Amino acid sequence: MATPGRSKQGVEVRFGERLTPARQIVRSALTSGPGILWVNVFLLVPLLAVIAMSFLTRGSYGQIGLPLTFENYTRLAGFGAFGFDPLYPLVILRSLVLAAGTTLVCLIAGFPLAYFIVQLKPRAKQIALTLVVIPFWTNLLIRTYAWQILLGPESLAARLGTALGLVEAGQPLYPSLGAVYLGMLAAYLPFLVLPLYSSFEKLDWSIAEAAMDLGADAPRVLRHAILPQVLPGMVAGMILVFIPAVGQFVIPDLLGGARTVLLGNAIQQQFGSSRDWPFGAAIAFVGMAVVMIGLWYYARTAGSDSEEALL
Amino acid sequence: MAAAAPGEPKGLMGSAGSARATAVEVAGVRRDFGSFVALDGVSLSIRPGEFMTLLGPSGCGKTTLLRILAGLDVADAGQVLIDGQDVSEVPAHLRPVNTVFQSYALFPHMTIRENVGFGLRMKKVPAAAIAARVDRMLDLVQIASFAERKPAQLSGGQKQRVALARALINEPKVLLLDEPLGALDSKLRKELQVELLALQRRLGITFVFVTHDQEEALVMSDRIAVMRAGRIEQLGEAEEIYERPRTRFVSQFLGTCNLIEGTATRREGLAVLVETPFGSLRAEGHGAPAPPTPEAPRESLTLAIRPEKVRLSPPGEEGENRVPVTVRELIYIGSETHYLLDAPGGLILTAYAMNARIGSQGFDLGQAATAVLPPAGLLVLDD
To answer: Is the pTM of this model over 0.90?
Structure first.
């Protein structure tokens, strides 16, 4: 057959059925329709609503209404009613730093862990992967409170710290920055380990052997032969950690002492107690935009030749 | 590496002077994978500049031996000397050898130029010197026009050349090749065999070449080590391995061979008289083992003869080593005809006859004939 799948009339034949334009539309609607509908109703429409809301004005009692305004954005940029105050830019920056720190901590812990799991025997591998996923079976809030117990004044960790002279007797190990990162690590590690693990699983070890054979010692085998191969999985994992970590505020609140405002609780505050939905919408939109711009920038550079330059 | 200084090499080779006599010395190397014995005490000496082939079926241990030479695997017992130096404790990246991998194992994220220059970069050679040597090497293996491409953009044969260039640029004492032509089609394979051989002669580097292809082994090697179940079954020059196989396995693995069981009855000089289903045969094949001792005069043994050594004569011919046969099957392949012959005792003999005469050739299906088994072509096997 010279032109498979096409009859004389130019109508495509698929699975033995002639696809007329009308049938094609029906078929597309049946196959892609639900997905498109889902994305529109549950993602696109709410998103547009948030964006629209961010240009509206809050009334005296928290009602949302006209006129259209940029005030929410100028306030977010720090130019409020009482002159310049970098509160919100700092909130965004702080959230980005926390997310970046979390990503780094997860990477430091996740890379060796993924490598370790990959070289286990099949049975042990199954168990290890299950152990990685198990925390997902419990609510984040409960897990975070559990950390409070584990880091409390009577906990083993605190007593160990006391014995080593690092902590005052009877003091809990939280609130502290270390406790925040520990909680973040515990919450987000699986997001990084799973994609990284699947990259390691597909790793072509003969390339690592070739590097060794050509005179590369262990660090350089890692750098030149292993990292380039697992980079896609690693970056995917880092993105999966970074994005939710930007909006995370429960863990910093519970383990960090609720002293600082982050993107997440700023938004929650505006939609909650402050009853300023338009301003909350503006914060949400800007936070999302910052992350999207970051991803877009990465996609652009990774698309070119600079994967190795990134390292 | 400089010539071995006095006192430097230790182990098998006693003095520094004699260390230069072998490029690779393998002594009693053993390797187990769980209950599977991959190498069962292998010993082998490879001369400098030699093209040594490790030939055997999959699972015979040939690749494991190569990996142990490269330092990518570790022997459980035994010793390996490269260029007179005991390398048992030397990690792969410090050994004076390089490997061409079966799967090529090119770095997918690097260009061809970067791939080839990698070894020199690891040795901290200045960038300008690397560039010059890479250019020369790319010319040598005729892939200069692909220098800026990525491995994914090359064909199998081109990748093979890159893998070769990437290894050779380091000027290794020994180049290890693990079925380098295995993934290529037969035409390209033959071309690259010739090229590889020419390159080896020109550079004078010792090659250790692993293959399961007997024809490739015969074409390329100075010497062949035929391996089976973790042991070297026979070691020798290509012609010797083919013409005088010592065991059933070697005779069958390289080419085709007729095997005839019998019992030795008498010895006359170098020849052995063997009682077989074809009657008494006289075998004068070289490498025949010690004749049966007077205490055990009727020792059972196996005779081997290559099909092309079997001569076909008209039926009824009388004389020594003549067997009456009938043509059971014949395969005409142009330059020669292959005969399957029904022989006494229900045996089938294979004979290859060159179609050298002009006009009609040989015998017809079902025709009677006499198979002549020349005494010099009949070998007594070890097993």
So the answer is: no
